[in-house]
Specification:
The chain is an alpha+beta fold. The protein contains two helices and five strands, in the order E-E-E-H-E-E-H.
Length: 100
């Protein structure tokens, strides 16, 4: 039995500023996770990643990230790393950092 496809978005880092960015339906980048276009098939995901990677003058490290869709079809990051990236950098101690 084939595994159910997990929806994906394309994420990368801004080449000049280093910010986390997300590929949108307009083939541009946004710093807002909710602006990302969602791939519902592996073919769509690969096509989006290919389009994103053509913008090497703007981005670095593009890759596909799994997302969870709620009832309203709003995408949320699925993995801890992506949750952390979507929240942005922090300037306070949390987790292991509190022991430093």
């Amino acid at each position: 039995m084939a595994r159910k496809f997990i929806e994906k978005i394309v994420t990368a880092n801004d080449l000049l500023q280093g910010d986390v960015i997300y590929f949108t339906k307009d083939n541009i980048w946004s710093r807002n996770h909710q602006d990302a276009i969602i791939a519902h098939t592996i073919e769509q995901a690969n096509e989006l990643l290919e389009k994103a990677e053509q913008q090497q003058d703007r981005i670095v490290g593009a890759y596909l990230s799994d997302v969870f869709l709620d009832e309203a079809q709003i995408a949320s990051p699925l993995h801890f790393r992506e949750i952390f990236r979507a929240r942005g950098p922090s300037n306070y101690f949390h987790g292991k950092q509190t022991n430093i």
